[in-house]
Amino acid sequence: MAVTIQQIAERAGVSRGTVDRALNQRGRIDPQVAEDILRIADELGYVPRTKKARARKACRIGVITQLAKYSFMTEVNRGIQDAAKELRNQNIELILEEGLSVDENEQLNAIDRLVKTGIDALAIMPVDHDLIRDRLNELCEQGMPVISFNTDIPGTDRLAFVGMDNAKSGRTAAGLMGMLTRGTGRILVITGFFGNRINSLRVEGFVNEIKKNYPDLSIAGVQSCFDDAEEVEKIVMNAMLGAQGIAGILVVSAGQSGLEAAFAKLQLDRRPYIITYDLTPWSRRALSENQIDFLIDQDGYFQGYRSVWLLANTLQNGELPQEEYEYTDISIRTKYNI
User: Fold this and answer.
1) Which superfamily is assigned to 58-163+299-328 in CATH?
2) Rg of the chain's alpha carbons, rounded to an integer?
3) Cβ distance 108 to 74 under 8 Å?
4) Residue 53 — pLDDT band, cuts 50, 70, 90?
5) What is the pTM of this model?
6) Strand, coil or helix: what is 127?
7) Domain 166-297: what homologous superfamily?
């Protein structure tokens, strides 16, 4: 029986994604870890499929993203583009449709354009709407492999999801906030769009964990900023001027730079503790300048990169993803590890 990447991963004590990067010399990986993986692969008699894959017919993979202009997409797109360069050597073409919003009709049109070009598989950051759900199920019924990444969509026959466990990340944020505040005070939560599944799961995980383990912390409110920095600024200004005892602020969406503008105007002796999401140029600077305390990163590069490679492996090697959910690490960032 042929040796699988999963067997190597179990023996090495790492993820399948790490084994894939080591065997194919792509992506970031610790040199010592890569050496151990290659040694184990050799001991087990692993035979790579590269030559077989290159002999297969040409394929097209469609990729659809959301919110293309937002800075958190920089790393996701970098992963997609790196995968695209590598897959050209295997006769696979990537066709990217960059969505500007979370509008279901915009995304539905993008799906239809890709289908008309003759794609063989689809990687998508889906809008959680019945129109998208029904269209994806149609494609799955027709035999097209579909993988969701960054954000998932329940009720579809997609093969797998690659991304963060957002509810778990929300619980992680709650634990951090509890430690920062010593478990007392009021917490302001700022989300993007209430209909955004990622935002909702993060908020739900945060609120549930606060209620369960930090009884002396209360939620001052959950407010939507529509991913807009000026709206974040207004929300923070109103909360700080109108409510007593705001001990911490959690921002689970884009628009985080509004925090800086608000506190510049408020001129407080001591700002609340702040936790945000996604490593972006602004958040790197904000961490280094002590404007925020913790940041939770979801490894956008791996999401874009891995989802495309899973589809390529399915198309050319006939291997389905071995796990339905391939979660990225929940990485806690401070000014000391950026």
Assistant:
1) Response regulator (3.40.50.2300)
2) 22
3) no
4) very low
5) 0.80
6) coil
7) Response regulator (3.40.50.2300)
